[in-house]
Write a structure and sequence with these properties.
- The protein contains twelve helices and no strands.
- The protein is mostly helical and 289 residues long.
- It has helices at residues 2-28, 34-55, 64-90, 95-102, 105-117, 123-140, 150-173, 179-201, 210-237, 240-245, 250-262, 268-288.
Length: 289
Amino acid sequence: MPSQRLARIAPPLFVVIWSTGFIVARLVAPHAEPLTFLLVRYTLAGLVLTVIAVMARAQWPRSARSWRDGLVAGALLHGFYLGGVFWSVKHGLPAGISALVAGLQPLVTAAFAGPLLGERVSPRSWLGIGLGFLGACLVVFPKLGAGVPPLSLGVAVLGMLSMTLGTLWQKRTGGGVDLRVNAVIQYIGASVVTLPMVLLTEQRRMDLTLPLCAGLLWAVFGLSIGAVGLLLYLIRQGAVVGVATLLYLVPPVAALMAFGLFGETLSLMQVAGMALAALGVHAVVRARR
């Protein structure tokens, strides 16, 4: 019974918590360099989860292959994806364009899920994916910027592809490992690929202000442990296309949060986009059932 309840609340809870990542990024941006912040986040989350896993006497992988699979998943899902997004935004890519690039992930996931995992994507699911993407476009359209640096755009696209491949890799390889242990190994993998980028491109600046400390605490416990734990659970329980489609709800929820916390305006176009994104996700969920 508890597992059924978790299966019902996990998707909406994941969307809400994952959406706070945009709020955290905005909160800490004036106080820390982005890749340095991510590296500290990965390290702290890994340490906390290690303590939890040891106290729970969770089983750690005994084969080199299992460790390799977790490290690769972490590098793809966290290191290259978040590192690419943060780097591209820092180097001039408008946040709206970055959100649009991220919105391509369910489309790419659906295209790869058949050949790589044998998942069948029905016509109704494709319709829902298309509606969700259109809705996400309407939500972020008012925030699109004029300048699009080609290099930053390319890095953002590579980050989106990394997240897609990481989701597929996790689905294919991460089924037999304790979720807490799996997350620890993933954060090691994410740190391994992020550390060289920090040493090469940043001065490791972090100002210990109240907004930074609050943002870091939520990033570790809310995002890196809560949201990522839910993501790994959803990938293990369901089709990767359905999980990826949930990300269409992130821009609308993030826009609502920005409206409530920062007083950002919401246009009629954005409200219509929210409804369309929700309709698209609903169509995919119904098709899976």
